[in-house]
Automatic annotation (TrEMBL):
SMART domains, A to Z: EXOIII
Role summary: DNA polymerase III is a complex, multichain enzyme responsible for most of the replicative synthesis in bacteria. The epsilon subunit contain the editing function and is a proofreading 3'-5' exonuclease.
InterPro entries reported in the protein's UniProt record: DnaQ, GIY-YIG_endonuc_sf, Ribonucl_H, RNaseH-like_sf, RNaseH_sf
Exonuclease domain span: 1-166
GO biological process per UniProt: DNA replication proofreading
GO MF entry, a single one: 3'-5' exonuclease activity
NCBIfam families in UniProt: dnaq
Record protein name field: Exonuclease domain-containing protein
Oligomeric form and interacting partners: DNA polymerase III contains a core (composed of alpha, epsilon and theta chains) that associates with a tau subunit. This core dimerizes to form the POLIII' complex. PolIII' associates with the gamma complex (composed of gamma, delta, delta', psi and chi chains) and with the beta chain to form the complete DNA polymerase III complex.
PANTHER family cross-referenced by the UniProt entry: DNA POLYMERASE III SUBUNIT EPSILON, EXODEOXYRIBONUCLEASE 10
């Protein structure tokens, strides 16, 4: 059974946004057999942009039920069925977060019609719902309303099911990988069935128990299935030959999963992880000595230097950072250290050169409290002087210890890329709260 779902929301962030409308169709793989639809009072104002996009106004939802009032019915309607949506992580994450707010867990196997469409109808210019429905002659009227979008997704799902080229496609996306393709006593059907399809990290090891691949994912079982899906590449054949053992961590926290992945990639350099880790760090600040200015902090491509003090995803992110730092009395901003190229730098003044790294990094220490794998737990990430130093799972209802370092169960190694991950994540406002440490 499948529940094919679409939601409308007050915004794109599941931490600050709320659901305003939901539509779900129960489908048995052949036909639609039931439906559930409702406007939802989000409890917060609907922004004008969203009102113009969806047509849903504050007045329309004023007398609608809250999510808590429809939660039990939605839970029953979707029970024992695979959760299907177009860009499923968006809809699933919002609904899961709404359940978490009322103290309830919501866990379902998921299936994404965007991913299925890419495999079923390769080569299309776009796989957005509006464009793929036009391409496949599916009627989509009243777009950006939940029932209309969900019904169009039903029709798309049925076309995917009827596509004769899809033999094995559903097994690859929602089924277990076949353990017989790997000659290992440690990877069995029973073991694979024990892996939840939740947010976390999965690791693959060879016969020497060397880490050869690590992957964070909002759905770790799906990530395993995707990685083990047969293909003709030499890389795949070598990977399948080398894999001997799999383990995983369920974090519930996307930030913790990203920090674990980055830390272990930077520490162990697994041979099947191409690139250093999933967040690209093309630019960095380095401490260098120049004949004219003495020791300076220069922004340049990361591959051009050694021992970066701070990393950035792109040039302009780094430029904005050092321009802001250049407004402090200890530094003077200069546009270019080298002739005929972009190499902005900071010249220390007033004796600031004695501790450049300390001047760069935040001196703030704090705890990030993030979601965990159940509603009764929270993930605690400790940040010391701007660098994440470790994490641990805590009781959601227990007070924070006077010695929070005792709550850290796993430590991180010190890499400058780790600071960048936390800096970027905090800017997205996806966490539950931050607790300063004095």
């Amino acid at each position: 059974m499948y529940t094919i779902i679409d939601i409308e929301t007050t915004g794109g962030n599941n931490k600050s946004g709320r659901i305003t409308e939901i539509a779900a169709f129960l489908h048995d793989g052949h036909k639609m057999i039931d439906k559930f639809t409702s406007l939802i009072n989000p409890g917060i104002p609907i922004p004008p942009f969203i009102k113009n996009l969806t047509g849903i106004s504050d007045e329309m939802v004023a007398d609608a039920p809250t999510f808590e009032e429809i939660a039990s019915e939605l839970d029953r309607f979707t029970a024992n069925a695979i959760f299907v949506a177009h860009n499923v992580n968006f809809d699933y994450s919002f609904i899961k977060e709404e359940f978490r707010r009322i103290g309830r867990d919501f866990k379902r196997k998921t299936l994404c019609t965007v991913q299925l469409s890419r495999a079923s109808f390769p080569g299309l210019a776009s796989y957005s719902l509006g464009k793929i429905t036009r391409e496949l002659n599916i009627i989509l009227e009243n777009a950006h309303r939940a029932e209309a979008d969900a019904w169009a997704t039903v029709k798309l799902f049925e076309k995917i099911i009827l596509n004769e080229s899809n033999a094995g496609l559903f097994d690859a996306h929602i089924g277990l990988p076949k353990p017989e393709i790997i000659n290992s006593p440690f990877i069995t059907t029973e073991f694979l069935e024990s892996i939840p399809d939740e947010c976390g990290v999965v690791r693959f090891y060879d016969k020497d128990d060397t880490l050869i691949y690590i992957k964070r994912s909002p759905q770790i079982l799906t990530a395993i299935s995707t990685k083990l899906r047969p293909n003709e590449s030499k890389d795949y054949q070598q990977f399948i030959t080398d894999v001997h053992r799999i383990d995983f961590d369920v974090t519930g926290s996307a930030l913790t999963a990203q920090l674990i992945e980055a830390n272990e990639m930077l520490k162990h350099k697994p041979k099947f992880n191409h690139g250093r880790f999933s967040m690209k760090t093309h630019f960095a600040i380095f401490s260098e000595k120049s004949d004219e200015y003495g020791e300076v902090l220069v922004l340049k491509r990361k591959k051009e230097g050694k021992n970066p003090l701070m990393t950035f995803g792109n040039f302009y992110e780094g430029l904005d950072f050092i321009k802001e730092l250049g407004q402090q009395q200890d530094f003077e901003f200069r546009p270019s250290l080298f002739q005929n190229r972009k190499s902005p730098f900071l010249k220390p003044v007033n004796g600031a050169a004695h501790n450049l790294k300390k001047a760069l990094l935040s001196s703030d220490s704090y705890l990030i409290i993030d979601e965990a794998s159940t509603v009764n737990e929270r993930m605690l990430i400790m940040v010391t002087d701007g660098i994440p130093t470790g994490y641990g799972v805590i009781d959601a209802h227990a007070p924070i210890s006077a010695s929070p370092e005792d709550m850290v169960q796993y430590a991180f190694a010190d890499f400058p890329e780790m600071e960048m991950i936390v800096r970027s994540y905090l800017g997205k406002n996806l966490y539950e709260k931050v607790i300063p440490l004095t």
